[in-house]
Amino acid sequence: MALNEFITELEEELKVLPEARRHEIIEDFKMQIEKAIELGDTEEYLLKMLGHPVKVAEKFIADEMIEEPEQETAEKLAEVTAKQKEVKETRKSVTGNFAKELEGINILHLKINGESVAVKVETGGKFGIKFLSYTHKGKLEYELNNDQLTIHHSGSNKHVKFNTIIDFMKKRKELKKDELVIMWPHKLDRLTVNNKDGKVTVTDIQAEEFIIKTKEGGIYTAGLTGNYGEFTSSMGALKAESSDFRNLYMETEMGRIYAGGVKAERYHLTTELGRITLDNLSPDCDIKALSKMGSVNVNYRAEPEKTKIVAKANVGKVKNALENNIISKEGYRAVYESEMGSVKITLS
């Protein structure tokens, strides 16, 4: 997504606000973006900081409701509710004829919204979908909007209760998360997965952008090719293998980060609580790897020729096998940092 696309989507989401207020917000956004770029921020960095246009719009709408008189607030809330209802009414149930219903439609953006489900997206000769709900409470719906296909999963196993171990043994199947597998045959402009609870696995897919997010659950990716990869989790490990990006962004609050054989020009890897393990990344690249409460371990397969390496540890030890490496001309910078752990850089 480019900044002009962000502004366009934001303006669309703000249509529930009066035109004058909407215009004011958009113009202010444009001005702030111009100032940030003048100060040196890149378009990619600003997009990361801003997040999704829908979330930004929700905040503005909520603020407007708080500031306006009670009657206007009620009217605006009714408008938003009506809009949400209209969106839901456009959804259709996923049936056994789902694949046939999509024949001949050129889909460039695949989006999956999950509640409590293990999601897998993998390459396939043709489009296919498999869904299993152990509680039989899970439901799949979809909606088509131009070239975007959105699949919505609803359902949870949190309502399953047990009082004794015997009761637990009888109901243990019902405690398993729903399972959703999607086979995808061609390249996408964007693959988006937003999952509240459950692991997300994506393998051998080509897309310009990958935006994969979970609240509770890990993310595993392999064999991906794209311009931008963003993998984030509140409570889960992140693992990426054998992939090729221009920019890779991985962030988790409570989990490990592993990247092996992933080529990129720029990496940004952060974990609040967990270690970072990196192996066979691009030797010459811009990279920032920060673990606040864990170690950082990096293995180079080839010596960097144009990258200055910086290793920092506020509390733990630093072992850098490349500390005496001489670079011909500095073109990149790699920063490996741990606030409460060690940093180790090896060459093999």
TrEMBL record:
Residues 109-324 form the DUF4097 domain. InterPro entries: Toastrack_DUF4097 (IPR025164). It comes from the Bacteria. It holds the Pfam family DUF4097. This is DUF4097 domain-containing protein. It comes from Jeotgalicoccus saudimassiliensis.
